[in-house]
Design brief:
Length: 137
């Protein structure tokens, strides 16, 4: 059984599928990160540099993909999911800041932003998800 609070977080099948303003802003942040990545790729002239950019692209795309999927299952008009979106925007901004200067300190900023985004999304969504499957999953 679901509680009222957790059931409100889940997107209803008959509900609106229009993107919210926060979801669109979330997408714009990722477009900016992709623009920085493409700029960085044009400046790389080695295979190892290109591999670093590809690895960063994979991390940024994975973050976008998981967060977009989260908004497909959960109602983005609910405060906890809006918090997930805002945190998911701050993380890629940290990743994007670290992109042009690939050094050990900036790599640490990239990793902290990446891991922090995924851990925070997991912590916000795991509790409602466990209640939806009856606690058996």
């Amino acid at each position: 059984m679901t509680t009222g609070e957790d059931a409100a977080l889940v997107r209803r099948m008959e509900g609106s599928t229009r993107a919210t303003l926060l979801e669109l802003l979330f997408d714009v942040v990722f477009v900016a990160a992709l623009a920085l990545l493409s700029t960085l790729l044009t400046e790389e002239h080695t295979w190892s540099g290109s591999a670093k950019v590809l690895l960063m692209l994979t991390a940024i795309w994975w973050t976008w993909s998981l967060t977009a999927t989260t908004t497909e299952f959960y109602n983005p008009r609910q405060r906890p999911i809006q918090a997930v979106l805002m945190i998911a925007m701050v993380g890629p901004v940290g990743m994007a800041v670290a992109l042009p200067m690939v050094s050990v300190a900036h790599l640490l900023l990239f990793v902290i932003s990446y891991v922090g985004t995924h851990v925070s999304r997991w912590s916000f969504t795991i509790r409602p998800g466990r209640h939806l499957c009856g606690g058996s999953c």
